[in-house]
Please model this.
Amino acid sequence: MDSLIKAAARALAAGDALDALKCVALREDPPALALRGIAMAQLGEYPRARQLLRRAARFMGDREDVARARCVVAEAEVALAMRDLRGCGRTLAAAQAVLEARGDHANVQHARLIAVRRLLLLGRAQECAAALADIDTHELPPAQRAVAELIVAELALRSLQTATARAALSRSRAAARMAGIAMLLAEVDEADAALARPAARRVSAGREYALRLHEVEELLRSDVLVVDACRRGIRTGTQLIPLARRPVLFALARELAAAWPGVVDRQTLITRVFRTRFADDSHRARLRVEMARLRALIAPLGSVEAQSGGYALTVRGGREVVLLLPPIDGERASLLALLSDGEAWSTSALALALGVSQREIQRALIECENAGQVRSIGRARSQRWLAQTISGFATHLLLPGAITLD
Model:
């Protein structure tokens, strides 16, 4: 390795992409191409970075399997930044196996962190936590330790363990300062700022309040009855009744909780839940059937009482009923929450993360674009989507795999 390659590598390790490019910008040998690719990635030029890393890997000799594997790991990290989550899993695992066999432990840990971050973006929180548990963060260099602690903090925020998240962010900030990388420090500061932003809205007895993440945690651990519109369920203490797959019952529970302690008349319920302007006997019969199902479902927690004016939600022990709403309105809140991270997402990556078909995502994005909520860049296969700025809110409760309280 010549002196210019060494100088460029040191500059990249310190996060100084421009100094690295000064050393290797005019060179076409594989090591220089790889370093140029990493520098372009640090500058946010992800497509160009990917091209350079692929060229570097292609030009590597037969005996340079370690260098080729490192290029694959770097390309997987670029793919992650581009939110291309489809095909990097297998190639990354193969590169990790090569590096492990050749004793390159630093890059093995780096490959593991990339795989863990991919699982986090896909909303597979349990798999992410299990994979992260296999990584000894104390043995990592400062930059990688900062990234690992950021992942710990993000997992904790999604599961509403704010004390754990604060501790992890403190460790991540210390590691980022030790590494001296300004971009890492900025990422830690942004994650820390989410703790102070409104994350949800609380509606009770006709009054609405903004809640931060730690306040949502306290609410969900209390003994009040919470109709959770973020993850579509009914909660009280440790009991949870999921309603994500029963949209009609959830819509009824939401209307009853919004009106508590008052009564919701039958016509209003039919109009809002069944989405029809004209009610007939069939709608009223269906309402009675669905209310009976909801009453049976929430029997351990409360009851739905039929009154002359309509229906009312009652809770045992005279406890309070709270409707927990997301910080932003609309059926596409989870989609907008993913896009609000500032990165450009492909439709395939959004479909993987949300667990729906790519065609459904495309239809939703067109609707959001018409409403001025998102914008696209590029065309055809290179098309990517970004959200218009969502300022002042923390969207952790809307992300895949969020809110798993013990």
